[in-house]
Amino acid sequence: MNPEVAAEVATTQARGRRTRDELVAAAAAAYGDVGFDGASLREIAKRAGVTHAGLLYHFPNREALLAAVLERRDELDAERLNVQLPPALGPLDRLIELAAYNEGNPSIVELFVRLAAEATSDPHPARAYFRNHYRLAREFAASGFRQLRDEGRLRAGVDPDVAAVGFIALMDGLQVQWLTDRSAVDLKTALRHYVEQMLEKP
Questions:
Q1: Which of the four pLDDT bands, split at 50, 70 and 90, describes residue 175?
Q2: DSSP letter, residue 199
Q3: Distance separating alpha carbons of residues 30 and 51, to the nearest angstrom
Q4: DSSP secondary structure string, 175-186?
């Protein structure tokens, strides 16, 4: 390929990726403000500074754009869990640190809480996503409780799978409380307290 043509193609591709990222960011902000049903594609395109046709070039429908927003959120969480935290931290510590990190990103928490509540109705395009998300979250938390059990630290009679359900429910419920009164709720402290109640007393 001619070098000039190759450079032009690379520039066009980079511009396309940038536009796509801007659309995903604009959609996330809109969903956080008015929910999925309240955010039209035209409004999202306006927020991103592109035409409606330009948005449809990248995302042919609302469901495709919603999927991209949720995928981006998962990418950020995975990066935080797997890259930015010390490898010695166990699953529960990683989830607690993620909750603490999210305190610095209220827009992400607001988006998640709003969409999770909306997705309880059927049909909703994010319902399958959240069903899978919570399944994986429970499994991840349960692996942490099983690790504590194997180390002889988990209190007798505590079922790791049941404890995981409670942990994830507490994590999400605390986020709702935190959004309504951030000065009254410390996510990290509350989650650590829950885990400590599951441990054998010294």
A1: very high
A2: B
A3: 16
A4: HHHHHH-TTT--
